[in-house]
Amino acid sequence: MKNSEKIFNALVREATFTKEVLGAGATQIRNANYSLPGVYAQAFAALSLGLERIGKLCLMLDFYIENDGKFPDFDYLKNKIGHRLELLQSRSAEIIEKREISFRFLDKIDLPVHCAIRKILHNYAEGDRYSNINLLVGGRQQSDPIAMWYSSVDMYIFENLVSGRRKDQIRKNADIINAMMSGNGVIYHTAETGETISSFADGSFRAGMFKAVAPYRQLFVLQIIRYWVELLWELGSMAQALGRQEIPFFGEIFGGFTMKTLFLNQGKYGSFK
What we know:
10 helices
């Protein structure tokens, strides 16, 4: 097998793996709630890994273009970049400005909710995935990623994007459920923020809130993914322009993300670009 063929195959495998991981994360983040804490872990793990890998693909292609078809060395990606999504984000923004890249969709992901999601996933990759273990063994305490998601993402969405009418209906439903079930059973769950859910009113309210914010969660996550997908497409085209036959068409691999976010944007969940 020729070296160019090995490079082509490695890039296709890496891109395909990354696409599948990101797709799993974007699906699971819509399903996670206080009764399914493990789904949060699945979503955070997949999204942090997938964004790290697509971000690194972008940096590698930028280096490839800059250095006449050469990729960066192992030390650059492992020790100078590591798992730091915030660093990958800032480097990606620099590439966009340097190469004057124009996006079809969002060329910035800087809404408060975008920044909160990115920070949570950055911290998760850097060590928050072990927050419970650190607490048990007396290690350096990490912030709780699920609690951070609830307070900085879900609450932001609920307060700013869910209609007043929907909020009123959620509260009314919670009161009805509480009146019907109190005295006929018990409820015991742990909320995302760690406190105990012991009333039917609280449990019903949180369930209603989850249903209201879940589509927006997925939308904002997909916007973040799409940002890097568009950058990867553009850099892939620039790399192909060098005349080698070793850079695949990344649009064929990641195309589903633009169709999905376009559909959500035009649907009932908001008019975000």
